[in-house]
């Protein structure tokens, strides 16, 4: 078959006798042989057997771990082809999943330099002695990493030092099946604007011999390290929050700048992963918001205030709603740190709090939302329609959940005015999108 396009999820898509087939590790324009492994009524999934005639959009992946490593799935695609594919995915989702016709999707905001862009990486210690990233499609296996092109060359040096230290000390590694072992993760965070680096070691228990030696080696080799932290996670799941975080050396937070504001980022604090593109996303949201100074703004799913603080510069007041108490605390600290007085952050579920906040503060002039990957869903969309803001900016990291939410807003009386995709995650299939909607008529039930 010939691969026509890339799909959300990362696989190539083609048609065989009109029948849709998804094949991984392919590029648009490839002529491939593939073996079907799942056949459904509307589509089939296949494994790549051989590329008979490679696409001109293919390029040699520069990373030695590309393929087995689950970090990047699109390094075999030329960067221009990656961003075109992302624009197409956004267009396809809005047309086919939301039924939105005649919507212009603006050219994607791409990265000038799409390498070393991440400000946070998390590596896993595996019971087989390796330290690396999860193997593609196998979350209990690790690909040992020597060089990663996503964060910064300093990260590779940190990986090597921590890996050597753990081996020399003979420290046990966490085994997720047996729930035994000490070392779990190595987290590296980097302030892309400030140059500061934070190293976090996550273990199952508090007693870890030799962390002082490790700290001395790290700070000597990488003087940009301003904090070395130790987090304890005795639980079964790898997720946050950690049971405890202590400082081994330096400061408990990293300084970073975004959109002209300072942020203090702890080991667990959520922060947009690509600082450069997050800055451009804030600019897009500000341009879409088009505030004049007297407006009341609601920022739903506001996290640590990434949009709330910049929007407050040109609004009368901004109210952010966020479910994670640590994020709300960080947002309040960030507001104080930057002397922004006209923002308020409320902790709780958007679904419950939105009507309450609107009842208290009145109809917002602008409503911004940036929900998690799963989208906000119909019930929240109904409440957003009821809130009656004349203008909405919807920021999404998943076009397949954005589409049904937009369809609800359009049914509720809004019109899509602009769709701006952004590439926040080069070499992966992920695509960010900011959408401007305006109320086209009187509110309708969604
Ligand atoms: C994609 S992040 C947006 C973060 C934010 N815009 C920022 O840049 O800091 C989604 C946020 O929604 C929050 N969240 C998830 N479900 C929520 C809910 N039901 N109500 C309020 N916030 C929620 C998460 O904790 C997370 O901070």
TrEMBL record:
<dbReference type="InterPro" id="IPR012340">
    <property type="entry name" value="NA-bd_OB-fold"/>
</dbReference>
<feature type="active site" description="Nucleophile">
    <location>
        <position position="397"/>
    </location>
</feature>
<comment type="similarity">
    <text>Belongs to the class I-like SAM-binding methyltransferase superfamily. RNA M5U methyltransferase family.</text>
</comment>
<keyword id="KW-0808">Transferase</keyword>
<dbReference type="GO" id="GO:0070041">
    <property type="term" value="F:rRNA (uridine-C5-)-methyltransferase activity"/>
</dbReference>
<dbReference type="InterPro" id="IPR030391">
    <property type="entry name" value="MeTrfase_TrmA_CS"/>
</dbReference>
<dbReference type="Pfam" id="PF01938">
    <property type="entry name" value="TRAM"/>
</dbReference>
<protein>
    <submittedName>
        <fullName>23S rRNA (Uracil(1939)-C(5))-methyltransferase RlmD</fullName>
        <ecNumber>2.1.1.190</ecNumber>
    </submittedName>
</protein>
<dbReference type="InterPro" id="IPR002792">
    <property type="entry name" value="TRAM_dom"/>
</dbReference>
<feature type="binding site">
    <location>
        <position position="322"/>
    </location>
    <ligand>
        <name>S-adenosyl-L-methionine</name>
    </ligand>
</feature>
<feature type="binding site">
    <location>
        <position position="370"/>
    </location>
    <ligand>
        <name>S-adenosyl-L-methionine</name>
    </ligand>
</feature>
<dbReference type="InterPro" id="IPR030390">
    <property type="entry name" value="MeTrfase_TrmA_AS"/>
</dbReference>
<dbReference type="Pfam" id="PF05958">
    <property type="entry name" value="tRNA_U5-meth_tr"/>
</dbReference>
<feature type="binding site">
    <location>
        <position position="272"/>
    </location>
    <ligand>
        <name>S-adenosyl-L-methionine</name>
    </ligand>
</feature>
<dbReference type="GO" id="GO:0070475">
    <property type="term" value="P:rRNA base methylation"/>
</dbReference>
<dbReference type="InterPro" id="IPR029063">
    <property type="entry name" value="SAM-dependent_MTases_sf"/>
</dbReference>
<keyword id="KW-0949">S-adenosyl-L-methionine</keyword>
<feature type="binding site">
    <location>
        <position position="301"/>
    </location>
    <ligand>
        <name>S-adenosyl-L-methionine</name>
    </ligand>
</feature>
<dbReference type="InterPro" id="IPR010280">
    <property type="entry name" value="U5_MeTrfase_fam"/>
</dbReference>
<keyword id="KW-0489">Methyltransferase</keyword>
<feature type="domain" description="TRAM">
    <location>
        <begin position="1"/>
        <end position="50"/>
    </location>
</feature>
<feature type="active site">
    <location>
        <position position="397"/>
    </location>
</feature>
């Amino acid at each position: 078959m010939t691969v026509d396009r890339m799909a959300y999820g990362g696989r190539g898509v083609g048609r065989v006798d009109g029948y849709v087939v998804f094949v991984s590790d392919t590029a648009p324009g490839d002529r491939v042989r593939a073996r079907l492994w799942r056949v459904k009524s509307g589509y089939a999934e296949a494994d790549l057997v051989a590329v008979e005639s490679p696409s001109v959009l293919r390029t040699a992946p520069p990373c030695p771990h590309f393929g087995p490593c689950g970090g990047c799935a699109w390094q075999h695609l030329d960067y221009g082809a990656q961003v075109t594919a992302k624009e197409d995915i956004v267009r396809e989702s809005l047309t086919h999943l939301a039924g939105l016709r005649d919507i212009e999707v603006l050219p994607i905001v791409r990265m000038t330099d799409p390498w070393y862009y991440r400000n946070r990486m998390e590596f896993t210690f595996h019971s087989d002695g390796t330290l690396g990233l999860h193997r593609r499609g196998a979350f209990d296996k690790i690909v040992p990493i020597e060089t990663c092109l996503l964060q910064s060359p300093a990260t590779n040096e940190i990986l090597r030092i921590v890996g050597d230290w753990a081996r020399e000390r003979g420290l046990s590694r966490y085994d997720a099946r047996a729930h035994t072992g000490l070392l779990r993760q190595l987290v590296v965070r980097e302030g892309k604007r400030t140059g500061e680096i934070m190293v976090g070691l996550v273990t199952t228990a508090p007693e870890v011999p030799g962390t002082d030696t490790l700290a001395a080696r790290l700070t000597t080799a990488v003087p940009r390290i301003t904090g070395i932290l130790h987090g304890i996670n005795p639980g079964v799941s790898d997720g946050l929050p950690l049971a405890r975080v202590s400082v081994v050396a330096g400061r408990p937070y990293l300084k970073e700048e975004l959109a002209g504001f300072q942020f203090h980022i702890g080991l667990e604090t959520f922060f947009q992963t690509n600082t450069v593109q997050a800055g451009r996303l804030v600019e897009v949201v500000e341009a879409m918001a088009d505030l004049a100074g007297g407006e009341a703004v609601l920022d739903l799913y506001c996290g640590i205030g990434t949009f709330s603080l910049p929007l407050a510069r040109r609004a009368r007041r901004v109210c952010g709603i966020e479910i994670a108490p640590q994020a709300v605390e960080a947002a309040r600290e960030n507001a104080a740190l930057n002397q922004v007085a006209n923002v308020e952050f409320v902790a709780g579920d958007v679904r419950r709090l939105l009507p309450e906040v609107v009842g208290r503060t009145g109809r917002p002039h602008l409503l911004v939302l940036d929900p998690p990957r799963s989208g906000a869903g119909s019930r929240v969309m109904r409440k957003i329609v009821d809130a009656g803001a004349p203008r909405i900016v919807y920021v999404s990291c998943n076009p397949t959940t954005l589409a049904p939410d937009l369809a609800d807003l359009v049914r509720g009386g809004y019109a899509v005015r602009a769709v701006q995709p952004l590439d926040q995650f080069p070499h992966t299939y992920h695509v960010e999108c900011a959408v401007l909607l305006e109320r086209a008529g009187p509110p309708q039930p969604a």
